[in-house]
Amino acid sequence: MKKDFEGISVVIPTYNYRDLLEKTLDSLCDQSLDKSLYEVIVVDDGSSDNTFEVIPKYKDRINILYLYQPDFGFRVASARNLGVIQAKYEIVLFFDSGMIASRNLLDEHLKSHSQFGREVVIGLSYGVNEFCSSNFNKLSEILSYPADKVFPMLSISPELYDCRFEMFSKLMGKDLNRYGAWVAFWTGNASVKRGELIKINGFDEWFNSWGGEDVELGIRLQKSGCKFRVLPGMEAVHAPHEKDAEQKVRDSRNNIQYICRKHSESEYQTLKSLTWQEILGIERQYPKACAEPSLA
User: Fold this and answer.
1) CA torsion angle 102 114 184 244 (round to 10)
2) Tens-digit pLDDT profile for residues 31-60
């Protein structure tokens, strides 16, 4: 079935985040992009908090689809793949439950894809850190203000900027593929053409614990010839909630070992010994044929 290039499908995996999901959906109801040009696909990874009860109140506000998969453990990769399969539009935005969108989020992602070809768009978000939520109280306080005040207040709070902001600022105007942007491809806020995802078989469903499934997808997108770009502004915010940072560190280490077994090239082996900041700071030289991925 031919997919529509004129809109965007938002895929949101969720698991027992009913309250956070409502915040996310509320923000997606208030977009500058016309409602006829986007859909929201909520993929429930076996929640036990009656998440499904949230969906009906949004039926008249946005084009929303609810999908459910049984709880067989942490299966965010398969949840996202299920959303991609059902997506109506060619542009797919992966957006996490608990992320709050600015009014321009969908419009900015869609514009970026309309300007270029085979691109992967990374969106930065306030409040995003690698493993945990820092400045929890300040972020919570700002989010308690009226919606039209939130993003202006966040813009003057550099301690709440996305932890990738500084590194990407240093790389402004440079070929991000040469600087290993795959390592910072985090799907809390990132968009890709559906066709590119289908071509490489989507997310690897081996992943059954937190961390790495998006980075591994980024590796394969780079290998397939896609070009990474970053949205110029932060158009989302990560709503603070409790996390088990130590557990996430342990999970990510195990998943890194798997990624390195799957991708033996020296560029990806750096995951074993370097931080993502260090990897993102290394310029690489590729063979001429691979240096500039084609923009179809």
Assistant:
1) 40
2) 999 999 999 999 999 899 999 999 999 999
Q: What phi and psi, each to the nearest 5 degrees, are found at residue 37?
A: -110, 10
pTM of the model: 0.91
139-179 per-position pLDDT tens digit: 999 999 998 999 999 999 999 999 999 999 999 999 999 99
Instruction: Give the largest Cα separation in the chain, rounded.
Output: 54
Distance CA 283, CA 179 (A): 5
Residue 110 CB-density burial (10 A; 0-12 exposed, 13-18 middle, 19+ buried):
buried
Residue 148's identity, in one-letter code, is D
User: Does domain 4-291 bear CATH number 3.30.70.920?
Assistant: no
CA distances from 215 to 100, 186, 242 (A): 22, 7, 23
Residue 261: its H or E element: helix 245-262
255: phi then psi, degrees, rounded to nearest 5:
-70, -30
183 contact partners, CB below 8 Å, separation of at least 6: 215, 218, 271, 276, 279, 280
Distance CA 39, CA 1 (A): 17
Strand partners, 68: 44
Rounded to an integer, what distance in angstroms lies between the CA atom of residue 21 and that of residue 126? 17
**What phi, psi does 44 have (nearest 5°)?**
-90, 115
